[in-house]
Design a protein that fits this description.
By secondary structure, the protein is of the alpha+beta class. The chain folds into 2 domains: 256 residues, 2-Layer Sandwich (Fructose-1,6-Bisphosphatase, Chain A, domain 1); 195 residues, no CATH class. The chain has a 5-stranded mixed sheet. A hairpin with a 5-residue loop joins strand 3 and strand 4.
């Protein structure tokens, strides 16, 4: 019991608040409808990741039940998915998207091309043969309800962009076709509320990385910060050219309509609420939409501030050499996350020779490599911003030291996720290239500024080239060699 209490207490409870006076009367009336629709996504995510939620929860004591609710199932997401409920085995790699007894060979023999769709389940028919079931069929009842709620909210929307998006998204939920609504979301510019809903990220499918999970965010825009960073969006073509790779790897033109926004998050549901919470969003994932409209990056400022105050600062004070603590700043943390999101839209999205989507070419290594690219290239872009005089009033060392503190924050419970492995690739690369120094007597860490600058540039180039070459073997090797927590770091974490 004491151990479970400790596990639950690993999570801080934070109140998500925002200034609702920024919203109109009609916008405030929309919120309850959005909360209801978000809760349906929550219900669907349980089905995708585990199955029957009540069957599991009803058997558990209060503390274990609470921990299962946080994890959306009986596996500890921050501890390499270790089961914490008696009698429950390992978490299936394919979650609940595929039959538990399905072999890879069997899946590959299945002739239906929709088997690799982002919006289908693989199930068995009465003859025990594999069949493909669209989400819109498997979850028809719930998705029909959610769709109706979106249409009710759209009827209240005064902002034409938001109204159009909600109507298109209502249709997307019941057709499994998100393309038009993704375009509509990108066209929505001056809305106060943002509502992300649908089956979006593929992290839960650890088997093939095909299947996406249901989730929802309810967000309220922070006007002042959004204006500050709009300016950066105008620099994207220049930043793409500044990447430290041969020209062939930077011919893609980042769409100029890419936009950035800062929001307060007031609700997380489904996939995005499982285990740890994200502090930034970069969508849509569809490369076709990205080509036409770019992508939108949303920084969740209230969640970021909470993580910085409650987690990053206390960890940094233990891990860092006291002489470098002065470099750990919320503004640097904010910029590092912001440029991580910007970096997702830069680099290569199609392989250079075959012109196939990088996601397809790199298969199960894609998520880890893309997260590593975004982290390290984001830091490279901040370095460039300093060089071109866009951030000359700040000390670049703040971004470097805060970045390293961020890695400790991210992997303190393990590195099983795509983000976790990505963090370890960076950390191990810094260590190998002497950008990080460990004080032998105190065990504290510090950064060598010049070596860090070079390591950031070199690692960014390495990853973008693997992506551009669609080199699956090299990607696999990089993750195997460098995607794990080294003993020195484990000692610090313990």
């Amino acid at each position: 019991m004491a151990a479970m209490k400790e596990k639950v207490e690993e999570y801080a409870v934070v109140k998500l608040t925002t200034d609702l006076s920024r919203l109109t009367e009609k916008e405030r009336q929309m919120l309850p409808l959005l909360f209801k629709a978000a809760n349906i996504m929550d219900e669907l995510y349980w089905l995708q990741t585990f199955g029957n939620k009540e069957e599991l929860l009803s058997k558990l004591d209060t503390l274990t039940r609470r921990f299962a609710e946080i994890n959306y199932g009986p596996w500890d997401r921050l501890n390499n998915n270790k089961p914490f409920v008696e009698g429950i085995g390992e978490k299936p790699l394919g979650a609940n998207f595929y039959p538990k007894d399905m072999t890879t060979e069997e899946f590959e023999k299945l002739a239906n091309p929709a088997k690799a769709s982002l919006y289908t389940l693989i199930q068995r028919d009465e003859n025990n043969q594999l069949i493909v079931v669209p989400y819109s069929v498997a979850y028809k009842e719930q998705l029909t309800k959610a769709s109706a709620l979106l249409l009710q909210a759209a009827a209240l929307a005064e902002n034409s962009g938001l109204k159009n998006y909600l109507q298109l998204r209502a249709k997307a939920l019941i057709t499994d076709n998100y393309y038009e609504s993704d375009l509509g979301w990108m066209d929505m510019k001056d809305n106060h509320i943002d509502f992300i809903i649908g089956s979006i990220e593929n992290y839960e499918d650890q088997l093939f990385g095909y299947k996406t999970s249901f989730e929802s965010f309810i967000l309220v825009k922070d006007r002042e910060w959004t204006d500050k960073i709009q300016h950066i969006a105008t620099l994207l073509p220049k930043l793409q050219k500044s990447l430290s790779v041969p020209d062939a790897y930077k011919t893609e033109i980042p769409a100029s309509t890419s936009d950035l926004g800062v929001y307060d998050a007031i609700y997380y549901a489904g996939d995005c609420n499982a285990g740890s919470k994200t502090i930034a969003i970069n969508l849509p994932n569809d490369p076709q939409v990205q080509k036409l409209k770019g992508s939108r990056r949303l920084q969740l400022k209230n969640t970021m501030q909470a993580k910085f105050d409650r987690i990053l600062l206390p960890i940094a004070s233990i891990v860092f050499n006291p002489s470098q603590m002065k470099y750990i700043k919320f503004d640097a943390f904010f910029e590092n996350v912001m440029f991580h999101e910007i970096a997702h839209g830069l680099g290569v999205h199609q392989t250079i020779k075959e012109k196939v989507d990088v996601r397809e070419a790199l298969k199960d290594t894609y998520s880890t490599l893309e997260e590593a690219k975004a982290d390290i290239t984001g830091l490279h872009l901040i370095t460039t911003m300093h060089t071109i005089g866009e951030m000359s009033n700040r000390d670049l060392m703040e971004n470097y030291v805060t970045f390293l503190a961020g890695i400790f924050r991210s992997v303190r419970f393990g590195a099983s996720s795509a983000h976790g492995k990505a963090n370890m690739i960076q950390f191990n690369y810094f260590l190998q290239n002497e950008a990080i120094k460990i004080d032998p007597s105190s065990g504290t860490y510090s950064i060598d500024f010049e070596k860090m600058k070079k390591a950031v540039s070199d690692l960014s180039a390495l990853i973008i080239q693997i992506q551009g070459d669609g080199d699956y073997q090299r990607a696999k090797q990089l993750i195997a060699d460098m995607g794990n927590i080294p003993p020195k770091m484990q000692t610090t974490l313990d």
